[in-house]
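<purpose> Linking amino acid order to shape
<body> The protein record starts here
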Amino acid sequence: MADPTDNDTTRLQAMISGYMMSQILSVTASLGIADLLGAGEASVAALAKSTGTHHRSLARLLRALAAWGILEETQPGCFRLTAFGAPLRTDVPESLHNLALVRCGEAVWRSWSDLLHTVRTGETAFEHVFGMNSFQYTSLRPDRVAIFDDYMAGLTRRSIATILAAHDFSQYRHIVDVGGGNGALLSRILAAVPEAEGCIFDTPAGVKGARRRLEQAGVVDRCLIATGDFFEAVPQAADAYILKSVLHDWDDGQALTILENCRRAMHPDGVLLIVERLLPEQITCCEAHREITMMDMHMLVVPGGRERTIAEYAELCAAARLEPIGVRPTGSPFAIIQARKAGAPTTRRTAQADEQRP
């Protein structure tokens, strides 16, 4: 009779060795193997020539990919890409190519190797290893800026439809996307709300690619691109300010500074829309909780931020003299927390959210 613990042991062994597969996928993405096999099967010799790699070592990598179902060895020494491995291509919808490069690249990899230091001291592993924060490091490497830009745009694309369905953006005439990067979110909002104007606010490195995306969406004439530092100030007097996937990058003190600067810039009846994942109050063993806790660990190790519960976001808002007035799930990993200036009068915009007060 089989030991019922065998499956648990096998699963735990796979977790222990998971770093090996992460590096195999990272190298596969770096070499562009999936793109090279996009047109059909190829021999190891042809792939080694195209990638400038060592023939025998590459063959061993390809066999490992075949053993996991990412490639198929059609005959000895010849491989083709499977449907399972297709998301590693750069030219497919929902591509995971940049995810493999960002999450498994050298800088992140070396930072995760210092996790023990972070757990012991509370210091961010990335800064301990490189002597600067992850955003400074990326800004000094133009090739990494482009990869990170595409990675973040991909994350937004996967959730934008649910965000638009969950919140009525037509009530705003001027929207500022704080930390809006390449405009993946605001370009879609402005396309859906023809009467609105917008502003993408980020660092000079962050907004690279924003104009191209706004032009593609047909909204470039209704959107300003502004650069600056949200730790200093943000553009003034908009109806709505959006913070999507911004606050989780920073510790509580830094997040509070960002929120305070948003409050100072807001109209008296303006709103702030915080779009973030929400950490559950209690963790259970399920896929959704695995996803957010692993993201929380990534925040701990690399940028030094954290995922937060709705109560923790409410506390941050209160400290910034902001009042959360609604929390709306989107059907994606993200929720929208709507806030106004503390003590501000109820308006048509804010009355709709009061019934969902956290």
Summary: DSSP finds 17 helices and ten strands in the chain. The chain has two domains: 7-90, 151-356.
